[in-house]
Write a structure and sequence with these properties.
By secondary structure, this protein is mostly helical. The protein has one domain. It is built from 18 helices and no strands. The longest helix has 38 residues. It is globular and about 60 Å long.
Length: 427
């Protein structure tokens, strides 16, 4: 729990921020559904962009944790410096190609023209935070690989606190809407990046010394870096496809259904970031165990992760069962949205239980760098479970069919990783 608890706190700041964004838009006096929809579409685009590049955190975490367990100082430094180099290059590419990116995104995403116009404005502002956002992925993964979850926790708290305060300032003091939410995010991300550099210089000065370009660009190391991260990239793209597909199909059902699903989905994100606290701890601990070549420590770590995770999932489902109605009233005061949302509460209540195993196993697979197996299980879950479930169920169940497909997707991910674990994790 020494690693898991700070990770949980770190992760919970993210959905809380998302909830604050949606709540601000949900309580606007005029056209709240349109502004909620704009944030939903804009956030979906950045989820695809940034989460698809989540290998910057996951690959860095697993690589660094194994170097830490093996006490290889040069590889520890390489873990951060290679990751930051790739992060800044990718961020430059996102900004350079922002116009074709947004054009393609809004071709693929459904929604009314008014919602799309506001979401496009949100996109052009928030894309400016790309260098800070991607670099923070690298820093978070590296700190975690160093078995230090407290520094990412502090950075995340600062970033999201700044973000929430600026949200209120821009929306209520300057009368901005979704554009104010985007601007707040940009400023907050750069404040976090500055803090990350300060922490490395202050606490990890021996590793802050810049290695030679020859060492950083060593062919064998670079190939290993991209092999690992290429598998994670494909896995993450498929995950994001499923989540983005969920939002896009919600939009086809109208602005109110899009708003309802977007608000309810925040509670799934809330639990997912909670569960990822254990998954991130699993990355660090299983990576360290692999570096130490200790199978007993690896098995013990996985067992504890699932015990704690199950307890948290049960507690979360009970809280949702009794409190979801009241939580939604905090998110919006729109009576049409609140009445429609009641039909889908049970799907949210059971999501922690059906998705827990997928989150925990993700962390384990990243820690032992079994990226190829993690990629293959995601292909099975998305292509052979999620899409067939949706196309078979949606014509008859409509929005309920969409939620059912999401549950089956999460269950199949956890089950498939559990089945192949003896040949991929415990070797």
């Amino acid at each position: 729990m020494q690693l898991a608890l700070p990770n949980i706190i770190t992760n919970l700041t993210v959905p809380l921020l998302g909830m604050a964004d949606f709540a601000l838009m949900g309580h606007l006096k005029a056209n709240s559904a349109i502004y909620v929809g704009a944030i939903a579409l804009g956030t979906t685009i950045f989820n695809v962009l940034y989460m698809s590049l989540g290998f910057l955190r996951m690959g860095t975490s697993g690589f660094t944790a194994q170097a830490f367990g093996a006490k290889n100082k040069q590889n520890i430094s390489l873990g951060l410096q290679r990751s930051l180099l790739v992060a800044f290059l990718l961020a430059f590419g996102l900004i350079l190609f922002q116009y074709p990116i947004q054009w393609l995104a809004f071709k693929l995403l459904d929604g009314s023209q008014e919602v799309k116009n506001l979401a496009r404005q949100y996109f052009y502002i928030r894309i400016l935070a790309a260098p800070a956002t991607l670099a923070l992925y690298s820093f978070y993964g590296w700190f975690l690989g160093m078995q230090n979850a407290k520094i990412p926790m502090v950075i995340a708290i600062v970033v999201n606190s700044v973000n929430i305060v600026l949200n209120f300032v821009f929306v209520y003091a300057f009368h901005m809407t979704s554009n104010g939410v985007a601007l707040a995010s940009v400023i907050a991300q750069y404040s976090g990046l500055t803090l990350a550099f300060i922490f490395v210089k202050a606490k990890y000065k021996p590793y802050a010394k810049l290695l030679s370009r020859k060492i950083i660009m060593q062919k064998e190391g670079i190939m290993a870096f991209f092999r690992l991260n290429g598998d994670i990239f494909i896995r993450t793209l498929l995950l994001l496809f499923a989540l983005s597909f969920f939002t896009s199909q919600s939009a086809r059902l109208g602005n109110n259904t899009l708003a309802v699903n977007s608000l309810l989905f925040q509670f799934f994100f809330f639990f997912s970031y909670f569960a990822d606290g254990f998954a991130y701890a699993g990355e660090a601990l299983t990576g360290k165990a692999k570096g130490l070549q200790s199978k007993d420590l690896l098995r013990q770590t996985i067992r504890h992760l699932f015990l704690w995770g199950l307890a948290i999932a049960l507690l979360t489902s009970l809280i949702y069962w009794g409190g979801l109605k009241y939580f939604m009233q905090v998110m919006t005061n729109n009576p049409e949205i609140l009445n429609l949302a009641k039909n889908y509460y049970l799907w949210v209540v059971f999501l922690p239980l059906t998705s827990l195993a997928a989150f925990i196993w993700d962390g384990v697979y990243v820690g032992v760098t079994a990226s190829k197996a993690m990629r293959n299980t995601m292909i099975i879950a998305s292509v052979f479970v999620f899409l067939p479930a949706f196309y078979l169920g949606f014509p008859y169940l409509q929005n309920n069919g969409l939620w059912l497909a999401l549950h089956l997707f999460m269950i199949s991910r956890g089950v498939s990783m559990w089945i192949i674990a003896p040949k991929t994790v415990y070797v």
